[in-house]
Amino acid sequence: MRPNNVTIAVQSDFYQAWGTYLTQEFETTAEVYRSNQTAIIRLNETDLPRRVDVDRNRVINLTSNNYNDVTLTGESIKVDKGVNNTYRVSARPLQNGTMQIGNITSVEADSEIRRQPLDVMFVIDESGSMSRNDGDTTTRSEEAQAASKAFVADLNASRDRAGVISYNDGDGIYRITDNNRYITSNFGTASAGTGLNETIEDIPARGGTETQNGVRKANNVFSMKSDESRNKVMVLLTDGVNNDCQDWGDNTDNNDPFDCGGPSPTDNELTVEYAKNAAGDDVTIYTIGYGDSSAIDQALLKRVATVSGGEFYRADDADELNDIFDEIRRSIASTQIIARDPISSNITANGTVHTPAVPGDDNQVAQVKINGQVFHNINDPSTDSQYSHVFAINGGDNVSVKAHDYECKDGAYATSGIIREFNDTRYRVARCTDIASHTAIEPTRVYTSGDDITGLVTRNYNSTWQDNITSYFEQYDNIGVANESGNYILDLKSNQAVVYYDLPNGDKSENMLVLLFQVGVAESDAEAAGVVNVEVTNAHVSG
């Protein structure tokens, strides 16, 4: 507690010298008494050293206005004692080393973010109806071949493999050679694309449609040539329905499939059964119905895609077909990562911006310039929670505690080398290397000691994403959260506040930023020692 006044009495053979010393030290006349050899000086508040005068020192209490004026409104914190004081301000993340702001997202893999290598099988209908065109100069078969070759060209030439199977009403057994329609380049990499493309170009268009044959053959290839280390994908394209005849008398001038008496229920069930077998081998099937929708068994294609975890698509012309192939390629060439969203705290005092400082070499940390000020991404895993703001303010200065939420530019995520497990799945953690637009964020609330934060403590956290806020205090010895009959009460130093930002969540993530704000000196850290220092230079013991 701060004394209102102090009386100092010194009894000594040298009482007169003590009286002179005390008068000179405090510029207040000391009284001396010969009768008991005592010098006495009485000090009022204005006579006390500045460090023990709360009206003039830098001790701050953000929860009380007894000796300082405190204003906490929204984003602003202001303290004032009515004197020309300066105060040290610091702000840093409360969740030191555990900040995890971001989301699980899919990105197209590249040299920075790797994915599983792909094994892709194109299962293409070669029935007679594929020889027809849809009002242009190319046949459906030629258009399917062109889309397939474009797909292969965009695969990773050193890591991905591709093959092609064509099917009609035949049920032949094909040898696995480069010269056969069953597979090309011995399921070679995309860099061996010449042989694959030649095989695609050799796909004929004749006979009926037995989709189950194509799926069955593709399953055989995956079983013989692929393994669990690779992402297995089947792209199934047809323009008709399952049938088992060759109606060569059908009029090839129209766009209908060969009329062979309608779909075969047995063939359909076999197709679905083979699709289930594929799914059991972790093969995903994407199905495409090409041409007149009335001539396609969309229900079957949807079932095949659904049971294997794929998607069904419809295309009326070559442009739509190319778009679908490109969409499938992008989908399977992507990988899921934990993307650390770029963010920065933005603290302004009396109009002066104080950007976060990151220790060490920060050249690798993404930054953005806003109104001439450079802001670093404080959520970069390479500098996880090590940033801080430190500056000085004058009494009465308004301190604004905002944040900036940034958009990472397309293709600007790079792997950090960190792996995290979330819900039994391992993800690479990626950092943003280039920042786009920004959005200003105000704090959800500023808390001081004694505030009830039960709502924050009991919110439905996913503990594998971000820790409960109570755990953030475990690194501190003298602040924390007290459980008072089920209510969680914040226990901070008098000069501290917790600034809480509730950030946008991802589909599987819960995001928040929590800063520990401090201004001036805490009451518990203020010492009144040193009003009078006495150094003993000589001692005499008698007895």
How are the SSEs placed, and which strands pair?
Layout: E1 6-11, H1 15-26, E2 31-33, E3 38-43, E4 69-73, E5 76-80, E6 86-93, E7 102-108, E8 118-125, H2 140-153, E9 161-167, H3 193-201, H4 211-225, E10 231-238, H5 265-280, E11 283-290, H6 298-308, E12 312-315, H7 318-332, E13 334-340, E14 343-349, E15 352-354, E16 367-370, E17 373-376, E18 389-394, E19 398-408, E20 413-422, E21 425-432, E22 435-441, E23 445-448, H8 454-457, E24 480-484, E25 487-491, E26 496-502, E27 512-519
Parallel strand pairs: 8-9, 8-10, 10-11, 11-12, 13-21
Antiparallel strand pairs: 1-3, 2-3, 4-5, 5-19, 6-18, 6-27, 7-13, 14-15, 14-19, 16-17, 19-22, 20-21, 23-26, 24-25, 26-27
Description:
- By secondary structure, the protein is of the alpha+beta class.
- The chain folds into 3 domains: 6-48, no CATH class; 69-106 and 338-525, no CATH class; 116-332, von Willebrand factor, type A domain (Rossmann fold, 3-Layer(aba) Sandwich).
- It contains 8 helices and 27 strands.
- The protein has helices at 15-26, 140-153, 193-201, 211-225, 265-280, 298-308, 318-332, 454-457; strands spanning 6-11, 31-33, 38-43, 69-73, 76-80, 86-93, 102-108, 118-125, 161-167, 231-238, 283-290, 312-315, 334-340, 343-349, 352-354, 367-370, 373-376, 389-394, 398-408, 413-422, 425-432, 435-441, 445-448, 480-484, 487-491, 496-502, 512-519.
- The strands form 7 sheets. Strands 4, 5, 14, 15, 19 and 22 form a 6-stranded antiparallel sheet that branches. Strands 18-6-27-26-23 form a 5-stranded antiparallel sheet, with no helix packed on it.
- Strand 14 and strand 15 (352-354) form a beta hairpin.
- Helix 2 packs parallel to helix 7 (318-332).
- The longest helix is centred in the middle third of the chain and has 16 residues, at 265-280.
- It is rod-shaped.
- Residues 169-195, 201-208 and 245-260 have low confidence and may be disordered.
- Residues 119-328 form the VWFA domain.
